[in-house]
Design a protein that fits this description.
Blueprint: H1 7-26, H2 30-55, E1 61-69, E2 74-80, H3 82-105, H4 112-131, H5 135-153, H6 160-191, H7 196-200, H8 203-206, H9 209-226, H10 235-238, H11 244-253, H12 258-265, H13 267-270, H14 274-295, H15 301-321, H16 325-352, H17 370-383, H18 390-405, H19 408-435, H20 452-467, E3 472-473, E4 476-477, H21 478-483, H22 499-524, H23 528-537, H24 540-546, H25 551-597, H26 605-629
Antiparallel strand pairs: 1-2, 3-4
């Protein structure tokens, strides 16, 4: 199947192009099924190509498709190792379920087929990034996912808020991408190539600690933008303006996981740069705590999940920064399951509640939407880190590695445990406010369960969110062995091997999660007036969390307002007076010269004859004078 690996990218790409030209003719729901089958086909090809890795007989491959930029060692080549295989299966598998869900969710939208054009293109772009065999091809996919996120976040562009959110995502990511490009330039300067094979094998002999640190930090700048970490996380909450399946695809299977993937793929470089790796871990831990605290006070069902994603990505950065590449990728996988389930479940709630997203206007939905309630309950327990759900195994492996590393990483472990308690609190708060208690919805709203095209993906993802963590436990390290060939030659940090330490650390994490669940349930199972008083009793901290620490206002004052003022000055002062003045000045000079010369062009032959004779006389006179002089 590796000979057909190119189909993994081509199938969704072809689906996007095909639907661009013929989607409106096919109409609803056929256009959606075409896009879904294209994604499912990619999953089948990827699964077949990955089977040797599951059997333990696979080999790392480079599949060269065609020459692209040989001068910089950049060809269209696909890398196929266990890391690429796992990421591909996540993108195509979870992506297929999101495509299927979208058929029901987007039903009735006047741009139904256009939505699937963008969705297929998004998946093809992410697959290009994941399967790239060099940094140039990776950067191509990197920029394409940025473009697709803009198209999908602002899909309902007639809403000013959606249009603004798309632009915000695009601009913020450009900031991170600038650092990423400088990092790639430094890589090419150091190695003379952008090919993985020419970089990773020679990294220890080519790079000193300083250059490796510079490259690692510059790549981190790009990863911070794509994966929404401090300080470039502000675009992701606004991205909720797009359709809910877009949120699920961005948060679970595509764009925001790209930063984690790049750090893991660049492990040979980060191994030579301990400071850069420690910075990755520190930013991840701080982002996890920061975003979790904001999620505590959000009332929009999707905003809670947006800040939750930022926080969970922080755990992944903590893992890969601590050289626990297997643990970081493991949490990326389990997060794809339960976060896709949470977003699709939220979409089901919004669908059944006539587009209502304010949790204060919900309550008691479990009786009306049992499948959505049960599946979101599974996802809530998974993200809260309650065993045996998948999130427990992956999150606790990251925390175990941080504790085992000692020193500064023990502080990050404490931050991770506190974040786990906050995560359990805000997710339980969401579940109770949405599904339990008395109804608080507006008059005329009639909640109902979603159609099968939406509930079937929920059920599949619920199974994965429950059992997906069993692929890597202290007793059966299946994923660790699976990924081992991808990190050959790299020192991968391991969690504590002693069972007593594992049970102690796991017990601390579980107790933190249970405390968060119990506290949220006791606070929010009461009538709305009671939990509103609880929130008010917290005073200023709650208001800060509710306003997301007013970081957007800070950016508005420090960056946006000065930028607008500078743009206005450039447009109405420099451009009008200097640029337009220079252009208009040249035109004025030409016009005045033309006016002065205009009398010479009378159109009368006699005038031209007089000038001709005068000129002739002048020439003859000059020749006579010159001749006498000789």
């Amino acid at each position: 199947m590796t000979d057909l690996l190119w189909l993994v990218i081509v199938l969704p790409l072809f689906g996007s192009v095909f639907l661009h030209f013929f989607g409106r003719r096919l109409g609803e729901p056929v256009a959606g099924w075409v896009a879904t089958l294209a994604m499912a086909g990619s999953f089948v090809v990827a699964f077949g190509a990955a089977l040797p890795f599951f059997r333990g007989t696979g080999e790392n491959l480079q599949v060269v498709l065609w020459e692209w930029m040989p001068a910089v060692g950049a060809t269209f080549e696909l890398t196929w190792d266990p890391l690429a295989a796992l990421m591909t299966l996540i993108v195509t598998g979870v992506g297929s379920l999101i495509h299927l869900y979208s058929i029901g969710y987007m039903s009735g939208d006047e741009r139904f087929s256009r939505f699937f054009v963008y969705l297929n293109l998004f998946a093809a772009s992410m697959l290009t990034l994941v399967l790239a065999g060099n940094y140039a091809m990776l950067f191509l996919g990197w920029e394409l996912v940025g473009l697709c996120s803009y198209l999908l976040i602002s899909f309902w562009f007639t809403k000013p808020s959606a249009a603004a959110a798309g632009k915000k995502a695009f601009v913020v990511n450009r900031i991170g991408d600038f650092g990423f490009m400088v990092g790639l330039m430094l890589i090419f300067t150091s190695f003379g190539t952008l090919s993985y094979a020419g970089i990773f094998e020679r990294a220890p002999e080519v790079l000193d600690t300083g250059v490796a640190t510079a490259i690692g930090l510059l790549l981190l700048v790009g990863a911070i933008g794509k994966s929404a970490q401090i300080p470039l996380y502000v675009w992701l909450p606004d991205a909720m303006e797009g359709p809910t399946p877009v949120s699920a695809l961005i948060h679970a299977a595509t764009m925001v996981t790209a930063g984690v993937y790049v750090v893991a793929r660049s492990a040979p470089i980060y191994q030579l740069a301990p400071f850069a790796a420690g910075t990755v871990a520190t930013i991840g831990a701080l982002t996890a705590l920061w975003a979790a605290s904001i999620a505590l006070a959000q009332n929009d069902i999707k905003k809670v999940l947006a800040y939750s994603t930022i926080s969970q990505l922080g755990y992944m950065f903590l893992g890969v920064g601590a050289a626990a590449y297997v643990a970081g990728v493991f949490h990326l996988m389990t997060h794809a399951f339960f976060k896709a389930l949470l977003f699709l479940g939220a979409g089901s709630v919004i669908h059944g509640m006539a587009d209502e997203q304010d949790m204060r206007k919900m309550g008691g939905l479990a009786r009306h939407m049992p499948i959505t309630a049960i599946t979101m309950g599974v996802a809530t327990l998974a993200i809260a880190g309650i065993p045996p759900f998948s999130g427990f195994w992956s999150k606790d492996e990251i925390l175990g590695v941080a504790f085992e590393a000692g020193g500064w990483f023990v502080v990050l472990w404490v931050v991770g445990v506190v974040t786990a308690m906050l995560t359990a609190f805000y997710m339980t708060r969401q579940f109770v406010m949405v599904f339990l208690g008395e109804p608080r919805w507006d008059e005329g709203v009639h909640p109902h369960e979603s159609p099968r095209t939406m509930t079937v993906p929920l059920l599949v993802l619920a199974l994965l969110a429950f059992g997906g963590g069993f692929v890597n436990t202290p007793w059966r390290t299946g994923l660790e062995h699976f990924l081992e060939p991808a990190f050959e030659g790299v020192a991968v940090a391991q969690p504590p091997k002693e069972l007593s330490t594992f049970f102690l650390l796991g017990g601390v994490s579980v107790v933190a999660g249970v405390l968060g669940i119990v506290a949220a349930y006791l606070a929010y199972r009461r009538p709305a007036e009671a939990w509103r008083r609880f929130q008010e009793s917290l005073g200023a901290p709650w208001r800060w969390w509710e306003q997301a620490y007013r970081v957007d206002d800070l950016y508005g004052a420090l960056v946006v307002a000065p930028g607008k003022a500078l743009a206005e000055r450039a447009a109405f002062s420099f451009d009008l007076r200097i640029v337009d003045g220079a252009v208009n000045g040249v035109a004025w000079v030409v016009r005045r010269v033309g006016t002065a010369l205009r009398p010479l062009q009378t159109g009368f032959v006699r005038n031209y004859g007089v000038v001709f004779v005068a000129g002739t006389v002048a020439v003859v006179a000059w020749l006579l004078v010159v001749g006498r002089g000789i």
